[in-house]
Amino acid sequence: MLTPTLCQRIVNALMKKYRYLFGPVPSRRFGQSLGVDLVPMKKCTMDCAFCQLGHTPRTTVVRKEYVPVEDITGEIAHWLASGATADYITLSGSGEPTLHSRFGKVIDFIHSRTAIPVLLLTNSSLLHLPEVRRDAAKADVVKISLSAWNAQSFKRINRPDRSITFARFIKGLIAFRAEFKGLLLMEVFLVKGLNSDPESARRIAAIASRVRPDRIQFNTAVRPPADKSVHPVADGRMAVLAGLFQPKAELIPSTGPGSSPALNANKDDVLALLRRHASTVGQVASAFGVPMLTAQALIDQLFSSGSITKRRMKKNIYYTPDEDHGT
Q1: Which among 55, 122, 190, 295 could disulfide-bond with 233, CB atoms 3.0 to 4.6 Å apart, if both were Cys?
Q2: How far is CA 29 from CA 147, 187, 218, in A?
């Protein structure tokens, strides 16, 4: 018999399964980050060679309400009501968040309910649009991207939608800097053999000086990239190139800053994390605050069922969903 107490427990259990929120997960740059997915998997304006989520089947610049704002804000409200906390609430996840035509409303809602700062992770491709700049400027911190120095390198590294030109891309970055009053971070993703030589770095640095970000951070392929031909740049090489930038570029640490508080992780939770972030067993353990043995057991169950696959990067083994398994 379903008693009122049992019904409430069932409702609570169901409500803990979020569709658009993931984490908080330990970020290598931003502490404990609650991710917010605003678009379907790989709905993006680019098909970056280094993307950890794999290839973009079809790029798009069509902006619309891919996910109902009310559904997203409902999940955020429930998460906040549960007493959970994070260092940042991050608009990122499965694609380019600025493709969502009402992402500014999500930021407004978060600011109305909590003092947790909002972080926007964008590939910068739509910042030439005034309405995108207006809504992006509502975030407390914005991470923009620049990994190319001309149209040819832009096409080779970022592989943007045909409607996105490099000139318009740079114009958007400069315009946003002039309007945004918060903390502006610039990520430069370095790929061995593509933009890791001093001359390429100098050209990127020259453009970065026109944009004037508050901080510049180097990233490289620490997780399995979309293209297997993409290889990481050694720390020593990045340290040398960092001095070519003003301000001097920072190297992102290869591991997160700490562990999450203990959560009741299960296979579905781990799979949801892996859909957004290829992870090692250690990173799964850190994300959910569980022992390594527990994380390994959950990974083993998913691997045995064929739900995930693994790939070695340097000395680490990363796990990702097996696309052929229908995940």
Answers
A1: 190
A2: 18, 11, 11
Q: Last residue of a domain, which of 258, 274, 296?
A: 258
Query: Based on the domain organization, do 146 and 267 belong to the same domain?
Result: no
Are both 201 and 322 inside the same structural domain?
no
Whether residues 235 and 246 share a domain: the answer is yes
5 in any annotated domain: no
Query: How far is Cα 278 from Cα 232, in angstroms, rounded to an integer?
Result: 15
- Collapsed DSSP state (helix, strand, coil) of residue 63: coil
Rounded to an integer, the average pLDDT of 113-139 is 97
State how far the Cα of 218 lies from the Cα of 235, in Å rounded to an integer: 10
State both tokens at 148. Answer: 């190319």
What is the distance between the alpha carbons of residues 15 and 290, in angstroms, rounded to a whole number? 22
* Token pair listed for 120: 């926007």
* Structure token pair of residue 230: 């993409």
In a domain, 98, yes or no: yes
- C-alpha to C-alpha distance for 154 and 206, rounded to whole angstroms: 15
Q: Which domain holds residue 236?
A: 20-258
pLDDT tens-digit readout, 31-85: 888 999 999 888 999 999 998 888 899 999 999 999 999 999 999 999 999 998 8
Number of domains in the chain: 2
Beta bridge partners of 46: 160
User: Which of these three, 206, 228, 258, is where a domain ends?
Assistant: 258
Two tokens, residue 314: 């340097």
- How many other CB atoms are there within 10 angstroms of residue 105's CB atom? 17
165 or 32, higher pLDDT: 165
Give the burial class of 256: count Cβ atoms within 10 A of its Cβ; 0-12 exposed, 13-18 middle, 19 or more buried.
Answer: buried
3-state secondary structure of 87: coil
Residues paired with residue 279 on neighbouring β-strands, in sequence order: 319
Q: Are residues 322 and 206 in the same domain?
A: no
Check which CATH number belongs to the domain holding 111 and give it: 3.20.20.70
Label residue 124 exposed, middle or buried (CB < 10 Å: 0-12, 13-18, 19+). Answer: buried
Largest CA distance in the chain: 72
Predicted structure pTM score: 0.78
* Identity of the amino acid at 89: I
Residue 13 belongs to some domain of the structure: no
